[in-house]
Amino acid sequence: MGFRHYFWTSGEPWCRVRSWLVPRLIAALHSVLMCTLRISMSGGSRLQPLLEEPQRTALLVTWHDLTLVLLHTLRDRQIRVMMSHSRSGQLQAALWRLHGFPTVWGSTRKREGVRALREALRGLRAGEVFALTPDGPKGPLHCCQPGIVYLASNAPAPVFPIAVAASSFWKLRTWDRYLIPKPFARVHVHVGQGLHVPPDLAREELELWQQRIAQALDDAQQTAAQRLNTAPQASLDR
To answer: I need a surface site. Which of 125, 186, 220, 232 has the fewest CB within 10 A?
Structure first.
């Protein structure tokens, strides 16, 4: 306990050791796990033009607990992600950068959160693709926050819900019940239809679109679960 506390909270040299070593260890373990999984995908053709053509503005959204497999299936596409400035957020950002995801720094603090939304908005208007978790970074679980609607409406950018289902998995005892597929599990990723949030939404319409995005994510999750047993094994439709 004493060494763990010192390693996690101290400054130099542990800060640099932690920032360099931990993400690489996790990345190695993640790669080994992904190699054992039999992954299939449906709806991947909806993302293809976004990821292969210039001026490809879009928001890819998934629930916070489903990101582990997407870290693998969407790697090296220069999709931008938003991370918090916390210690755990910085480690996560380092891990995602190792997989080819540029980072925008966000925060639950109002001022820093507004700054991050503005940076994301500039990126979207410049033709970038962002991947965000509507219930992150601290929940509530599977509750869509208004920032997604704000970005989709003001960019404007289509919102694509993405879900993941696994035949066997662990769930961590964290606020998001983070899902980790067990080795050799079958996994299905489903990309739902894009949602087009109207521009210049009135404030009273924000909550309605939050509910619609949450429902689209839940519908995508149901589809992923249904197709898990019918999709060709190890088929990755991109």
So the answer is: 232
The answer to whether 160 and 115 have CB atoms below 8 angstroms apart is no
Residue from 191, 188, 220, 182 nearest 34 by CA = 182
State yes or no: cis peptide before 140, omega within 30 of 0. Answer: yes
9-28 per-position pLDDT tens digit: 555 555 666 677 888 999 99
Quickly count: other Cβ atoms within 10 Å of residue 11's Cβ: 7
Per-domain boundaries in the chain: 2-227
3-state secondary structure the chain: CHHHHHHHHCCCCHHHHHHHHHHHHHHHHHHHHHHHCEEEEECHHHCHHHHHCCCCCEEEECCHHHHHHHHHHCCCCCCEEEEECCHHHHHHHHHHHHCCCCEEEECCCHHHHHHHHHHHHHHHHCCCEEEECCCCCCCCCCCCCHHHHHHHHHCCCCEEEEEEEECCEEECCCCCCCEEECCCCEEEEEECCCECCCCCCCHHHHHHHHHHHHHHHHHHHHHHHHHCCCCCCCCCCC
**The CATH fold of domain 2-227:** Glycerol-3-phosphate (1)-acyltransferase (3.40.1130)
Dihedral (CA of 198, 204, 206, 208) sign = negative
Answer yes or no: pTM beyond 0.90: no
